[in-house]
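Before the break, one more example. Copy the sequence into your notebook; we will annotate it together after we see the structure.
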Amino acid sequence: MARYEYKVVPAPAKGTKAKGVKTPEGRFALSVEELLNLQAAEGWEYQRAELLPSEEKAGLTGSTTNWRNVLVFRRLIDAEDERAVLLTQPLEAPKHDADGVAIARPIPGPEATPEASRAPAPIAEEVNDPPLKRSEDDGAVRTPPLVTQPVVESGDGGSSKS
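Here is what the structure looks like once it is written out:
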């Protein structure tokens, strides 16, 4: 399996002056071209440009989000080079953000620990609540009992004249 290392660099913010390049668009394109050629000379392959949010402090307690343009490059790591890099790099201390909170690191997945494949123990005992429907409710349709109204007879034999 091919493994890559990645490099992210800020995209140029303004153009570079050069002979024969007069327009701002041309100058900007020249500065991007120079950056791409410089990285390619070092073995980096251009992947894509990204626009990413960057949360930065503003004032004493506030923060603001600034959007940054970056260019992403990658290059292939040979198996021998990868082992050499891993063996020569010392283990690094945890990194912290500006507030002193440790930045999260990847943890081993479930395939790395055998106890992760077992189901967790139950949190509580099984509940033995009474059933929600009565035992005589077996799904049959029940009709409500017939309610009859008492018949009131008038004294004139059922006919009323006004």
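The mean pLDDT is 78. Residues 131 and 137 are 11 Å apart (CA to CA). Try to locate both features in your own notes.
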